[in-house]
């Protein structure tokens, strides 16, 4: 599962790829049905929190120096 920064945007992009395969008259209905669960997926947030907790419990210093920049991706470079 993609838990990195911007995962929601990548998920919306994938959703749009799928939506574009539908006939034009079915696209809005499919998009509106799937968009909320794509953006606000509680499972994604749960995985992020669990991963952060495990990393913090193992080594708080490494969490700050390694996990946070990894989670934020290239935005900190």
Would you kindly provide a written description of the structure presented here, covering whatever features stand out?
By secondary structure, the chain is mainly alpha-helical. The protein has one domain (7-72). 73% of the residues lie in helices and 0% in strands. Helix 1 (7-19) packs antiparallel against helix 2 (27-39). The longest helix is centred in the middle third of the chain and has 17 residues, at 42-58. The chain is elongated, with a radius of gyration of 16 Å. The mean pLDDT is 83.
Question: What is this entry, summarized?
Answer:
Helix content is 73%, strand content 0%. By secondary structure, it is mainly α. Helix 3 runs antiparallel to helix 4 (60-72).
Tell me the span between the first and last alpha carbons: 23 Å
Strand content: under 5%
Low-pLDDT segments: none
SS class? mainly alpha
Rg, alpha carbons: 16 Å
Helix tally equals 4
Helix content: over 70%
> How confident overall, as mean pLDDT?
83
Which keywords apply here?
elongated, single chain, 4 helices, 77 residues, mainly alpha
Question: What's the SSE blueprint?
Answer:
Layout: H1 7-19, H2 27-39, H3 42-58, H4 60-72
Helix pairs in contact: 1-2, 3-4
């Amino acid at each position: 599962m993609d838990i990195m920064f911007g995962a929601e945007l990548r998920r919306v992009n994938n959703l749009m790829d799928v939506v574009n395969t539908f006939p034009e008259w079915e696209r809005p209905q499919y998009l509106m049905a799937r968009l909320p669960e794509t953006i606000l997926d509680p499972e994604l947030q749960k995985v992020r929190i669990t991963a952060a907790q495990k990393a913090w419990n193992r080594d708080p210093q490494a969490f700050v120096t390694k996990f946070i920049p990894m989670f934020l991706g290239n935005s900190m470079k």
